[in-house]
Specification:
The structure is a homodimer of 353-residue chains. By secondary structure, the first copy, chain A, is of the alpha/beta class. In chain A, 43% of the residues lie in helices and 15% in strands. Chain A has 3 domains: 53 residues, lambda repressor-like DNA-binding domains (434 Repressor (Amino-terminal Domain)), CATH 1.10.260.40; 128 residues, Response regulator (Rossmann fold, 3-Layer(aba) Sandwich); 125 residues, Rossmann fold, CATH 3.40.50. Chain A contains 12 helices and 12 strands. In chain A, helix 8 runs parallel beside helix 9. The longest helix of chain A has 17 residues. The first copy, chain A, is elongated and about 90 Å long. Chains A and B meet through helix 4, helix 5, strand 2, helix 10 and helix 11 of A and helix 4, helix 5, strand 2, helix 10 and helix 11 of B. Chain A binds a DNA duplex (30 and 30 nucleotides) through helix 2 and helix 4.
DNA sequence: GTGTAGCGTGAAAGCGGTTTCTCGGCGGGG
DNA sequence: CCCCGCCGAGAAACCGCTTTCACGCTACAC
């Protein structure tokens, strides 16, 4: 190492002290040694005495593998990715791998260069690039491989992917609310260009189509509590009786603003979140939301990436289904919905998992 | 690389195509080339055409630096570390460094071996090892360097450290509550062996000493909302009028349980959190807490580690002071404190920052 | 007794770069 | 006109480890 802080002891020094060749030291250290036991002992003793530990860098270069994978996300600060990172990192560690994190700062272009650049320093990639156009991603794939995509399953890309079915999640919420009698919804949108927002929008559209006599107003917001707080005014202007928030954080912010304005949840208006982060079952009113299994998702991501790195053929993509958590922030609308109600509190037709 | 997925192009191939030596290619790629411009152009063109990009591994081995640092923490899932990680990673990225995360799973022994092992694969370490005994850490220091310690500033260790003054933080809260008239406190403890819990305990002890006529009951809890929820019963048994929670999550859980039990916050009992995570200013009642600047702390950690890696001498340690956020979850005790009150609502003597 | 198979170990060639050292060629000064 | 010095660029050493290949030795068979 250039800086003389702590000149590391090399395999050659161990070899010299044990009076063997570096090759033998290497073999002993890696359990590939077949020769005389006393030679092995000598090597082990020498290594011990010198506090030798092989340079991971040099091993990596020689072996062509780093035992490191990277996790590339648009924004590490997002609790969603943190949950995944936590379980991904723990699963990888269990198999002796480390994980490198890279934050693309939500920049679509950065996403691409960062992914490529980061990939070069490790053996595999878990890539969450919601902003990257399909074509761009497809072109990058050969360089990125082995790569496991997050939330890119819908499109036909030649790479394994695991995703969350946000569309189904929001439909579950919408149908729950519909079942309670709501016909006029508001959706507080997350970051517009993100796929996770788009699939929610899509899910709502298809719900509305199926349900028929409903109205869904869209309101631009964001992904933080302050965005939810700021959106309260516009929500009320729509006259919606139920509001779906992009995620739990937004829902909490929204509820806070509504409370400030003298609006009671769920008596005056129902609010639903998304994700089921741990805290929202402890606030008042307890938030109705869908729980998304980010932990299992991270673990599964590792499992599949690991298989991929071992050269196994990618198995089928998997889509995690969110699960409805009915709690206290949703209830019947304040006044019975307008006259045209045909099938009263019956849930939306079919297709509820 | 062993697996023939995408045989990377090497410097030799570029050299051959540009009809120069690998040395020249290297020089051109690193801006150290002084010769004929047309040679440089030829090299650049060849590199371009071959989509050459130097192997980070090989560079690292030759240069003796990886441009990677590691962040070792007891539990990545902890929001506290996530906030630090986020800003650490962003700051490091701005200087062209990546960050590796390692989770010691709160295991004191694991903390040590993980730190050492992880350190070998990178240029520096940000180490948060609250469980590791001083002696052990001191012994490891030479191997770990350059290393920046988190929350290990109090002890005399020969390594730079940046910390949060949890003691002062909890004292601010206690004094705030004392000023409101509280004399009987409960503290919901975090993970017992952690330094961050111990400094809070210490801070409370010194507060109690200074204040004189106060009582502080300690209750074992933990660091999550469910721990707070579970602790409510024991809190009420103490008869305390004000409770300090280990962190915001615990406080939220506690408040939820109290509400469930018909206890009103802050009318019946005051509750204070710790950390000021974004959401707690949006819940009802808005949580009184101290804000801890984890973001700036992460950035500062990078700044100092970076300086250290450049060989600069470590500057003085820094201690971030939490700042009191009075909100709605604290108020005067329900009945005037017992007869022995001498100085009524005057805040505790001096020493409030 | 010699050929050969087998075994234990070392020499050396990578892995893919960086950097020192060297050398040939050119220009300028004496 | 010759010599010296400088400059541009390549050869080779090196970073630290793995692994192939080869070699020397022993043992066994014929």
């Amino acid at each position: 190492m250039r800086n003389g802080r702590q000149r590391a002891v090399t395999i050659a020094e161990v070899a010299r002290r044990a009076e063997v060749s570096p090759a033998t030291v290497s073999r002993v250290m890696n359990g590939r040694f077949a020769g005389a036991p006393e030679v092995a002992d000598r090597v082990r003793r020498a290594a011990e005495e010198l506090h030798y530990s092989p340079s991971p860098l040099a091993r990596s270069l020689a072996l062509g593998e780093t035992r490191t994978v990277a996790f590339v996300v648009p924004d590490i600060a997002n609790p969603t990715f943190q949950a995944m990172l936590s379980s991904l990192s723990k699963s990888a560690a269990a198999d002796g791998y480390r994980v490198l994190v890279a934050d693309s700062a939500e920049d679509p272009e950065e996403e691409a260069v960062l992914a490529v650049e980061t990939r070069r320093g490790c053996d595999g990639l878990v890539l969450c690039a919601p902003r990257m156009p399909d074509e761009r991603l497809r072109a990058l794939l050969p360089v990125l491989r082995p790569v496991l995509l997050i939330n890119r399953g819908s499109t036909r890309l030649d790479a394994p992917s695991i995703s969350v079915d946000y569309g189904v999640g929001i439909q579950q919420l919408a149908e729950h609310l519909h079942g309670l009698g709501h016909r006029h919804f508001a959706y507080l949108e997350g970051p517009a260009p993100s796929t996770s927002n788009r699939s929610r929008v899509e899910g709502l559209r298809s719900f509305a189509e199926r349900a028929g006599n409903v109205r869904v107003d869209h309101i631009a917001a964001g992904s933080s509590s302050s965005d939810g707080y700021a959106g309260a005014g516009r929500v009320r202007e729509t006259g919606a009786t139920a509001v779906l928030a992009y995620n739990d954080l937004v829902a909490v912010g929204l509820m806070s603003a509504l409370t400030d304005q003298g609006v009671t949840v769920p008596a005056d208006i129902s609010v639903a979140g998304f994700d089921d982060i741990p805290m929202v079952s402890y606030i008042a009113p307890r938030l109705t939301t869908v729980s998304v299994p980010y932990g299992p998702l991270g673990a599964e991501a590792w499992k599949r990436l690991h298989a991929l790195m071992r050269g196994e053929v990618p198995s089928h993509n998997v889509i995690f289904q969110p699960r409805l958590q009915r709690r206290e922030s949703t209830g019947p609308p304040p006044v019975p919905p307008s006259a045209d109600r045909t099938g009263p509190a019956a849930a939306g037709p079919g297709r509820r998992r």
